Amino acid sequence: MYGAKLILKHKNISWENTLSGYNGWITRVEDYGDRPVILASKLNITIGNETVLFL
Question: How far apart are CA 11 and CA 48, in angstroms?
């Protein structure tokens, strides 16, 4: 398993990017597709102490 996260912040806006996945759990045939990579991205806008918007 592997994973990495990058968070960029400026004042009340933050942008989070995550890359994760695994390798070699299913090996039925040589090219079975057992190396998934997941990329997730999230944008947060905060006003005061509350997160108002996240995409």
Answer: 11
